[in-house]
Task: structure prediction
Amino acid sequence: MYVSHLECPRCTQIYDYGKRIQICTCGSPLLVRYDLDRVAAALNKNEMCGRPASLWRYRELLPVSDDAHIVSLGEGLTPLVRAPQLGHRFGFKNLFIKDEGIIPTGTFKARGAAVGVSCAREAGVDTLAMPTNGNAGGAWAAYCAAAGIRCVIVMPRDAPLINTKEIAVTGADLFLVDGLISDAGRIVGRAVAQHGWFDASTLKEPFRIEGKKTMGYEIAEQMGWRVPDVIIYPTGGGVGIIGIFKALQELQAMGWIGPKMPRLVAVQASGCAPIVSAYEARARTSEFWEGAATCAFGITVPKALGDFLVLEAVYASHGCAVAVTDDAILDAQAQIAMAEGNFVCPEGAATFAAARQLLAQGWIQPEEEVVLLNTGTGLKYPQTVEAEPVLLSPGDDLPV
Amino acid sequence: MYVSHLECPRCTQIYDYGKRIQICTCGSPLLVRYDLDRVAAALNKNEMCGRPASLWRYRELLPVSDDAHIVSLGEGLTPLVRAPQLGHRFGFKNLFIKDEGIIPTGTFKARGAAVGVSCAREAGVDTLAMPTNGNAGGAWAAYCAAAGIRCVIVMPRDAPLINTKEIAVTGADLFLVDGLISDAGRIVGRAVAQHGWFDASTLKEPFRIEGKKTMGYEIAEQMGWRVPDVIIYPTGGGVGIIGIFKALQELQAMGWIGPKMPRLVAVQASGCAPIVSAYEARARTSEFWEGAATCAFGITVPKALGDFLVLEAVYASHGCAVAVTDDAILDAQAQIAMAEGNFVCPEGAATFAAARQLLAQGWIQPEEEVVLLNTGTGLKYPQTVEAEPVLLSPGDDLPV
Result:
């Protein structure tokens, strides 16, 4: 185990490593810190090829003490694929898709759940609770089932139907709320206080981010231990972009990549864009977004606990934050599928809509290496595609 | 390129290698044969770790001449995970799930499409057509989009809605038929004859099976270049089980695994079980199954072109064929999700229902290594799960 301590990124308070810990006394999320010199001495980046084809290949950089506590469904090492046709049609010479649809439960949420639930199991948690827009609930319910941990989930009633089904099939306790994820969060907050459950809300425990950060390790490893110019990320709670930034800083500290940091772009839907508003005002934190609504349901987060960390990653990497309309998102989804075959989720499609905006503005140059982070499979969003196929009888021929 | 020729497994006729070829003049599917001695000399099984984390790691054993023709979305090297809790609850000491839900398009059909479409591109095909129960259509439409090949798909109207959506989003030409896949096949047959399109129907071209066989390579590699005692496979068209048998024979011929062959089990739904009927009669071919109906829609195949190859694989490996009811399938789906977190498709769940039957009959011993082949993600089958979550208002507390 190479964890040295937990650290508050807001008030800099230090905590001993412990797995039942939630947030800092100041209210901020906590970050896990490692003895990176010792990791760099123990691990050689050129000897990764014998490692598992999952995020557990970065075992030394993950906060689980005992292998016996690891809960894994084979998550991670998702494809980083080139998108040459899409790039050619829209003016990008080096466009890539990091496809997090190819993972257990169909979204990148599996990474946070795999590490978070492994840590919860190691800590002896018997019940955990969380609010979710759907995909995190699906992931945590699955890993909790495998870990034998009771999982209580509260989700907006407008969440995709498939999330209800994937959570129910694991035997988790599922509740819907006639409201947003912020309403679900308040219900969970009262319940964990009352029952002493572990609170697995976004960034209210420090281990989910450790799972998500592995996307950053993988992008660097898959590019040959270097980084692209730009990474575009759909941002709701923001754990992924915080995690990628943290991962790349860790790789830099270990000397595994050079000093170059990709410009990190936080994309939001124009119907729920608190981070973008804050960025445009050059603020350090965001304001609660009233009346949030978008087809990219997974990023309908009116106010993220880690907003200041998202904004810090954006500012420090010389990135930006961009809002895109639902129309642009749905058009991007179709363009990606028609050009490259990837059926991406609307949140993932938002990254390409943002890339097009930034290229048009000259913020991205045509030859730059741009990685679109597709956070999940479009298979979970059938309602985003319209189809009216012709119906034939068995004796019919195909129309010419 | 290590392909030596194409061979008819029924009449033994030999064909030169060519990519526009369809079936033998005798009507049988063709199999691709390799110069395995030359592959074994060129490739060392202990040096696979630097290879891509996809089925293209077995490049020398795939029938594509030029890398430039490869169409890949990152398919293959799916997880082979232990299922210890499920095994413990039901009396299996060494139970594994090969999880083909963790792949582009969410099902194992991506393997056949990746290799099949790459070969079609290499052959200069501009339009291909196929009948499908849904998942193959989704996969071939995606890879055709990436390859710039026009894709014409005919599918039963009762196929899952998600298949309609995933096909439509790629821009493929989709038609529904008020009938079964056999009716769709007849419509496609007339169209390809009329228009000169490439016929990508199951086993009417020899390359889909080459993609599917990589499941066999992976199981052997992931177990340390040895095989389990039993592999249980949900069987519709049967390409997967034929492919796995072929792959293991190839590995044996190269000396990469020993002479032990796993017992291959073909599972069908009791509502459509032509292979099981043939097996019970010790027949070499199957009869058309009238009135086919099951919740495991992907294996609703009344008569498979490769039935004799499926039966040969079963007989030669000392395997068997088993039918399971829809009730047993849906129960197995829930048991797997509750014990291990994997949300498998009903076809995949059928393998565990079969395993339980075979264990109860003494055909499987408790300590034997049993691999369940889950052919796809349950996310494509929301209708197989019932969920009635409690609805709360924002001010409510969770019920005790």
Observations:
- Chain B touches chain A through 80 residues (CB under 8 Å).
- The CA atoms of residues 23 and 358 of chain B lie 36 Å apart.
- The longest strand of chain B covers residues 150-156.
